[in-house]
Amino acid sequence: MSKTSRLVAQLEFALPTQSPSPQPINKPFDTALRPKRNLTHILVVDDEPLIAQSIADLLTLANAYTVTIAAGGRDALTKIEATVATALHPFDLVLLDIDMPMVSGLDVLKWIRQHPRLSSMRVLMLTGIADKRDMINALSEGADDYITKPYHPQELLARIKTTLRTQQLEKQLARQSSQLAMLNTITNTITKRLELKELLQASVNGVRELLEVAVTAVFMQDSFDRKRLRCQHLKADRGVVLTPADYASIPIGRGVISKAFTQRTTHCVNEAITDTRFDPTVDAPKGYRINNIMTASIYMRGHPIGVLVAINKRHGTFEESDADLFVSLAGTMSQALENTYLFSSVQTRQIELLENRNALQSIIDGIQHPIYTINKRYEIVSSNAQANTFASPTASKDETRVGKVCYETFFKRNTPCKECQVATLLSSAQQTHWSIRQMREDYFPVEWDIGAHPMAGKKEDAPVAVVVWQDRTEEKRLENSLHRAAKLSAVGQLAAGVAHEINNPLTVIKTGAEMLKDVITPEMGDDYELVEWINNATDRATKVVRGLLDFARQSSYNFQLGQVKTSIESTIELVAYQMRKGNVEIVREYGEDVPQVMASWEHLKTVWLNILLNAR
Q: Which of 83-97, 173-187, 216-230, 334-348 shows the lowest per-residue confidence on average (mean pLDDT)?
């Protein structure tokens, strides 16, 4: 599977293609919440047992408060400290008698207000003495309210309710502030995720943390069977062993999870056993009991694509504020999913473009001529591998020159090259051609034919010209060799004519020398030596003339066995004068026991002759 296929395969759910219909998404909380039991915990502190018990009975019968009695100040401190240490059912309000032996009510009040973990505890003072100073002292030390004995029961209940209402509002405000801050953090985390797996993981973790639930799951419409929902991701508390495989695919139309998808509403089931919307055969994972569950639809382009599920709130049941947070997270997740899809599409397109670019770059790199593009500032925008090395044979093909000025990086110049015709192209937008000869770093001359072709580009840094360098060095060398061969052929023909004309006089001279040797004897001294010198010189001249004639007659191949050394030596004799004139010393290093070879020796002489003349 290619990179593109793997990327697209991440979004394994059906995507909507039609425009959104004007229907509400995730309607307001649609079910009545179950009335909660009164969990308010009140501590009654009085050294008179009958008074303490009568207050406790009143609170229990009137509003079903949970009441604990303390027999005095010291007992009150012990009970409060115990709830703080164990964090079990702490006291929400303390009805505190002021006048008590040993540890007074004011002492207990001061201790409560100084304790760092009891800032939210409410204190209502009870006094049988209508002393304004006691009341002022109590209020100054942090009492929330006071009531004077004897009191009317309804007055006591009203003051307790008022005090607790302010406490509940304060707690609710603090909790909502904390939840909003957490929601903002989770939202930022989710919206930053552009990979589907990371997005689903961040979403389920955020729901578990925000709503304090045991299990969170995400269901998506099956891409193969659009009539079913399949669990894509699931996260459970430590100790709860659950995976997406524990959920069977859910037929659309059964259970509360499916209802959230089809109705695009938020459903809350706080009594899973009795609520008819809940279907344990499809809504519950295998082997796991659900007490309460909340579901919200996930949508894209106005159409549902999945469901976000929260299961088993750790403390109590779901409230309407939980539903509001849940709907907000589902909406954030929906937007993030659409961003993920768009990012995936863009990334897929980028990969395709990159693959096409790499394929084109490979083709261009395969061209043996240096090619590069430049912008209006002569900066190299792109180049092939040959362009990285043509100006410097020691440079690496992997060394990029992109972004560098062409005449600086290639030719170590501060201004454009004099021969460069790119300026003409920039002004006329017409392709141009020119030729140059340059010396490389290794002092090897190179012949170049250069073509510059215009390119269309609107951006400032866009390439405006593609420059192609063609190495004509070998072509020029072959042309020169052909010219030299033609000259040699002409020289050979001329030499054959000259040799033929010279050969006749040499024959006469040779014949005359032989006749003189018949009449002049060795005893005649200098005359005989002169004749011998004429005869030897004639032989040498005849040998040279014969060699020129043989060189000129090499039109056909005549293969014979012979020695390479003999062929080379005969060729050296032909150019011995030129070598001496050019102060060229020929060093002979022939190998021993060189066998005879079958060759056209007259043609080989041409090879040796070219080598000797080129060396000269």
A: 173-187
